[in-house]
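Handout, section B. The chain below has 222 residues.
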Amino acid sequence: MKAMATLMPGVAVVSEELAIQPSRLGDVFALIDPLDGTKEFVAGSSEYTVNLAIIRDREPVVGIVAVPAEGLIYRGRVRRGAERLAMSRGGADLDTAAVEPIRVRTPLRGGVVAAVSRSHLDSATVALLDRLHIGNRMACGSALKFCRIAEGAADIYPRLGPTCEWDVAAGHALVAAAGGTVTLPDGGALRYGETATDFRVPAFIAWGDRTGVLDTAVAVRK
């Protein structure tokens, strides 16, 4: 929090760890989750992340997802692209020679892969994937699921149960920067800064190539 105050003085910060969330936000604010994937972390898994997003006019414009155990950082700026970077030994610096641009992929017929939660997979999400005839499911924890969409390893990540804005915003920005989309289940826009609901997100779907996923699902049904 101190670092954010130094880098962006006067900008409100919303985080899971704050005892009292700010009730008033400016046009620009930050959403931070210092430890996403707590269950995985406690269990000794590498599938935990540190998430930071910059929100402007209720939309995520910058997203950073750090994966300390893998020595990786994913970052994206909407309409500017996304990339994957390696951290130097000890995680103190970035290896600028190991920067890879990343982008969502177009799924192949019968080859759609869904990223699903290892700890929070619910029956509604399973039912949606069954309706879309998506049998290939990649389970992982934390915001890594957004990273898998952004780097073209998976095509869709549905979460039809409630979560919080700081769990979603950084991954949302990353996927959007990589050419994908994140929407409400009905296709509507997902907005941030919902102080009245304590920054809750009722449900969402992250898409790589949304049209490609839906076209593939229709083709499979036929």
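Note. The chain has a mean pLDDT of 90. Compare this with the example in section A.
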